[in-house]
Known about the structure:
- The chain is an all-alpha fold.
- The chain is built from 14 helices and no strands.
- It is globular and about 60 Å long.
- 54% of the residues are buried.
Amino acid sequence: MAAVVIAGAFLALASVVALAGPRGPGPAAPWLPLHLALAGGATTAIAGVMPFFVAALAAGHPANARVRGAAVALIATGALLVSVRGVAPSAVWVAGVGGLVFLTGVAATAVATRQAGRAGLMVRRPIVSLGYSAALANLAVGASLGTLAAIGATPVLERWAMLRPAHAWANLIGFVSVVIVATLLHFLPTVLGTRIVPRRTAVVAVLAPALGVPVVVTGLVLGLPVVASGGAVVVLVGAMALAVEAVATVRARGRWTTDPGWHLVAEAGLVAGVAWYVVGLSLATGRLAAFAVGAAPDGWSTPLVAAPLAVGWVVQVLIASWTHLLPSIGPGDPPAHARQRAVLGRWAVPRLVALNAGTALLAIGWPIGATQLAGVGVGLVAAAVLTSTALGALAIRAAR
């Protein structure tokens, strides 16, 4: 619960920062809100729920509460300290301390995930645990590169044109996306009200990005963009496999007769997120392939991929997930949970339309430099996120 609340606060802060920046997401604007949303919001949420899901799948004992609490606190604190770089670039030591605190939180999350589910009554799905382990390893690499760049390490800054794409791939795709994909294997059927069916596509959906991203990072670190683009193609195959998995799950979904708004936000948010994941990875892979043949100046373009991957995929799935989880795992009796579902289902259609339309406008307007179009997209996304976080806060109060 604490992790979800903190994640919501980070998303709200990211929205406010994006709105307060230059008109449209210009060159000075993107890093800070993206860092707050991804390193702060998504990673804090993951630190809280990853050990929970592992224990739930195994029907075993949870990890030590102090370790889990420390993981959430360290990652949230580290992300907040690193964000100081966005408003005070000269405060290098603050960013450096924040990076070290964040990495300590990653280690604590790994320990908590390892402890979770011991002596369980059920057999764990090994593909999920494998995906989580690979994701944490990718995060350790990506966060280390980011920390070294934040403190101004000369060897890293001199090669930042190659290491920046490695940092982005390791964090956004190798960590956040792999965790979401592995979680969706059991979470999406649960939300849609159908059975969890083991399929080969599920294995490919997790293993392809888990193993492909290290190839991308290795190719970029060694200055071999052809190798990196080959790894990106493997990751893209995993995205296609997830899309097939999502379609099969949607076809087998249950038919809910109560709380339509609550179900719609959770279900449509997860499914739309998968669609944006495929779009974003297609663009990221194309950019890396263009860089490999000399048709692009570098292997990563934030204006090109941030909207589909960071907003349409990560932020949307995060909102859909807490919409489902708050009344399911939070405190309160059945009547309180019913009140929560009613609150979380308010304005379901307008929020979904605003978030996805805003993502589309941002994805179109930002790369081509259409500032007004991108600005409208930012406004729609921020409105959807701020409304969703406000409803989440009201839902927590409704459980009392």
